[in-house]
Design goal:
GO molecular function: flavin adenine dinucleotide binding; tRNA dihydrouridine synthase activity
CATH architecture of the largest domain: Alpha-Beta Barrel
Radius of gyration: 21 Å
Shape: globular
CATH superfamily of the largest domain: Aldolase class I
Bound molecules: flavin mononucleotide
Structural class: alpha/beta
InterPro entries: Aldolase_TIM, DUS-like_FMN-bd, tRNA_hU_synthase_CS
Protein name: tRNA-dihydrouridine(16/17) synthase [NAD(P)(+)]
Number of helices: 20
Enzyme class: oxidoreductase
EC number: 1.3.1.88
């Protein structure tokens, strides 16, 4: 479905024509994620059902200037011919920018290698405030209009925008309409406000996404609160959106989009407990997913950053690492000496294989136990905990989340202070949130009982890699 080369401004499609004919009407979208939605992860995610993926955010000015001649190949490696190739489509390249000319220059470099260019209007962190991008442009509508409109008029492929909601529905809708009038051909609406970050992240507001969807004529992608497979349909029904986008859910379970009926679940040679079907979704053994990911990293020409690989492994294997602390420590000690360090990948693989043997033994020991008994309830949240050998979402307690958010922020500041690139890091959910949407996995419990108190909401926060012993990865 994806186009193989640049279209001309005269022939480029827009809105639903573009969404259907070029992107193939995707419903399952993987979010732009700094250091995490890199080519190898995209390949894995596509295999397990992702239908459209965004690159990590790229700093437009640095990409266009590329004074060090290293930023460009690191962020989007055109030379090797794999990023944006037919196997890596549909693909949207995301930029952070605050200057229409630099943005256009950067976008021109990738226009023949992706299906659209997205503008990040959502990053809420202090580094984005200082860098003057992301959600801190939310009050500069003229500038946003010019950036979008410049790409709309001068780029051979469509421009799209990903943004956060405002505190009121009215302002959110007015903003979305402005983005559409500037020329954005798809709007991704993250249902959290700019203030919902760090330990104030909370839950996304699907009502506001619905209002946006009803107000604009271009396709809308809903973002926020997708933890389990069953959340996908719930979100689509609640928002009326054309597709859902997942970030953290995808990182902890790259098969989040895979339906439980999928044939990947049936392998008579393996214990019947090895894969778990729940709420319409498939939970595959995380060690097998990790081995597949490492094989992709090793097999492609495009080099993957050590921080990306380490970040993925710690998130993916998290349900088991609390038990296998010896392997967790060994994982943490591996030094990746350079981008694409094959020796380090082999070391990671050896550890994952050891973990895999232990997980297989645990799954075998559980054979004969009904699936329902293998699934327990996470006490503070009421959400489902799968057996420790399968990929699953991660929940964490608020105080650690807050500490983690602050730690991330400080580290990011250090990176900037050292001349590194300001970027957007994870946004853990937290307190002070609006009530969860009633149909989400999170919301079902909350609404069936009572409106949750803030400290209870605080407990429904996803866990971080810190708790699994992961050295905190800083977006760099
Ligand atoms: C590791 C990580 C990196 C992220 N990097 C970006 C980014 O580069 N650009 C962006 O627009 N949002 C970024 N985000 C935000 C996500 O795209 C998404 O909007 C947010 O996490 C909410 O979705 P979720 O509830 O599915 O996690 C990032 C999130 C995570 C977890």
């Amino acid at each position: 479905m994806a186009q193989s080369g640049p279209s001309t401004p005269q022939t480029k499609l827009g809105g639903y024509d573009f969404f259907r004919k070029v992107l193939g009407s995707p419903k399952y979208v993987v979010a732009p994620m700094v250091d995490q939605s890199e080519l190898a992860w995209r390949t894995l995610s596509r295999k397990y059902g992702a239908q459209l993926i965004y690159t990590p955010m790229i700093n437009a000015r640095m990409f266009a200037q590329d004074q060090r001649k290293s930023y460009r190949p690191e962020m989007f490696d055109i030379e090797n011919g794999e990023e944006g190739a037919p196997g890596d489509r549909p693909l949207i390249v995301q930029f952070a920018a605050n200057d229409p000319d630099w943005l256009l220059k950067a976008a021109k470099i990738v226009e023949g290698h992706c299906d659209a260019v997205d503008i990040n209007l959502g990053c809420p962190q202090d580094i984005a405030r200082r860098g003057h991008y992301g959600s801190f442009l939310q009050d500069e509508w003229d500038l946003i209009y010019k950036m979008i409109n410049n790409l709309h008029k001068n780029l051979a492929i469509p421009v799209t925008a990903k943004f956060r909601v405002f505190p009121t529905v009215e302002k959110t809708v007015e903003y979305a309409k402005m983005l559409e009038s500037a020329g954005a051909q798809i709007l991704t609406c993250h249902g959290r406000t700019r203030e919902q970050r760090g330990h104030h992240s909370g839950l996304a507001d699907w009502e506001k996404i619905r209002a946006v969807k009803e107000a604009v004529s271009v396709p809308v992608i809903a973002n926020g609160n997708i933890l389990f497979h069953s959340d996908i349909e719930a979100c689509l029904a609640a928002t009326g959106a054309d597709a859902v986008m997942s970030a953290e859910g995808n990182l902890y379970n790259p098969a989040l989009f895979l339906a439980a009926s999928s044939s990947s679940l049936a392998d008579p040679a393996l214990p019947s407990t090895w894969c778990v079907a729940s709420d319409g979704g498939a939970h595959l053994p995380h060690t097998r997913l990790a081995l597949e990911y490492l094989a992709i990293v090793k097999g492609q020409k495009t080099r993957t950053k050590g921080s990306a690989v380490k970040g993925h492994l710690f998130k993916l294997l998290r349900p088991a690492l609390g038990r296998a602390t010896d392997l967790r420590d060994r994982l943490g000690r591996i030094q990746v000496k350079r981008v694409g360090d094959k020796e380090a990948w082999d070391q990671y693989e050896a550890i994952v294989r050891e973990l895999d043997e232990r997980m297989l033994a645990d799954a075998k020991a559980a054979e004969g136990t009904p699936v329902d008994e293998l699934i327990t309830v996470h006490d503070p949240t009421g959400l489902k905990l799968m057996p420790h050998w399968v990929a699953q979402p991660y929940f964490r307690a608020a105080p650690k989340a807050a500490a983690q958010a602050e730690q991330n922020e400080e580290k990011a500041e250090e990176v900037v202070a050292k001349g590194g690139e300001p970027q957007c890091a994870p946004e853990p959910a937290g307190v002070d949130a609006p009530p969860p949407p009633p149909d989400s996995a999170v919301g079902k419990r909350a609404h069936s009982e009572r409106t949750p108190e803030p400290d209870e909401l605080a407990k429904r926060v996803r866990l971080t890699q810190e708790e699994a012993g992961e050295p905190v990865a800083v977006a760099s």
